[in-house]
């Protein structure tokens, strides 16, 4: 299985307690964690990224053990080859589009020369059609452009998997439809594996991957059978 997660984490704040206890595995190129607000989706994503340490269990991605409580393995986030795209994209406001993308190249394991970095940044600017705004700051570009910059920055570090936290939630409906299509097209072009969390059934339909439903910190059901190959990309979904 490319992604194999079985984790338990107890959390408490004030007088509230929350138990995350999820186990799933999938070979699909598009894995969708679906569930209502407060279900435990972000906690699961944070655990995979290495930002939350489970009490028990294991996390394996592409045959690499990222975490295993029984053997004490707990790779640092920067060694996981996992890119995490935050809900608000978390771009650096004081860096231009090109500099934000370049940051993805310097923060990971890769430490390319200045010239190589320049070439890689140019490549990602072209891939995401961001040349025209390369020198703009995040505050001066649109929501869709911000999402593309965040994706470009995430992909520049050549991750094994990209984790996306509600990637379309902040976009207006028209743009949401376009970005869903763009993400699928991009995936087809770049051979990416995506793990997306969402509470929106339209995202589930549009992504058409292996959907895993989480509620109250537990797996609700494997809503669709795991697919070795997520199959041809759907083209019948129009932007809203
Ligand atoms: N540090 C913490 N301490 C205690 N409880 C927490 C902590 N972080 C999150 N929780 C609780 O864990 C539950 C799951 O949170 P999580 O952020 O994973 O939900 P989610 O499914 O991603 O929801 P949303 O779609 O609203 O982002 C929530 O009830 C939340 O209040």
Automatic annotation (TrEMBL):
Where does the record place the ABC transporter domain? Answer: 3-237
The keyword ATP-binding appears for this protein: yes
GO terms assigned for molecular function: ATP binding; ATP hydrolysis activity
**Pfam family, any one:** ABC_tran
Which keywords annotate this record? ATP-binding, Nucleotide-binding, Transport
PROSITE patterns reported in the protein's UniProt record:
ABC_TRANSPORTER_1, ABC_TRANSPORTER_2
Q: Where is the signal peptide?
A: none
Answer yes or no on keyword Transferase. Answer: no
What protein is this chain from? Molybdate transport system ATP-binding protein
Organism of this sequence? Luteibacter rhizovicinus
């Amino acid at each position: 299985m490319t992604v194999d997660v079985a984790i338990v984490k107890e959390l408490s704040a004030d007088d509230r307690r929350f138990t995350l206890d999820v186990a799933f595995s999938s070979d699909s190129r598009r894995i969708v964690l679906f569930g209502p607000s407060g279900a435990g989706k972000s906690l699961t994503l944070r655990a995979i990224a290495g930002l939350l340490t489970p009490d028990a269990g294991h996390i394996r991605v592409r045959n690499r053990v990222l975490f295993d409580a029984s053997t004490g393995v707990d790779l640092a986030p920067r060694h996981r080859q996992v890119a995490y795209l935050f809900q608000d994209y978390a771009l650096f406001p004081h860096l231009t589009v090109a500099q934000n993308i370049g940051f993805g190249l310097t923060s990971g394991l890769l430490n390319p020369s200045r010239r190589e970095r320049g070439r890689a940044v140019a490549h990602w600017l072209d891939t995401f059609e961001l040349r025209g705004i390369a020198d703009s700051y995040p505050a001066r570009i649109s929501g869709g452009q911000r999402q593309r910059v965040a994706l470009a920055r995430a992909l520049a570090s050549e991750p094994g998997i990209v984790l996306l936290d509600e990637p379309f939630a902040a976009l207006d409906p028209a743009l949401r439809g376009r970005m869903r299509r763009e993400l699928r097209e991009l995936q087809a072009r770049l051979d990416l594996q995506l793990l997306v969390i969402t509470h929106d059934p339209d995202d589930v339909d549009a992504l058409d991957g292996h959907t895993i439903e989480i509620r109250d910190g537990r797996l609700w059901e494997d809503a669709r059978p795991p697919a070795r190959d997520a199959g041809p990309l759907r083209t019948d979904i129009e932007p809203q």
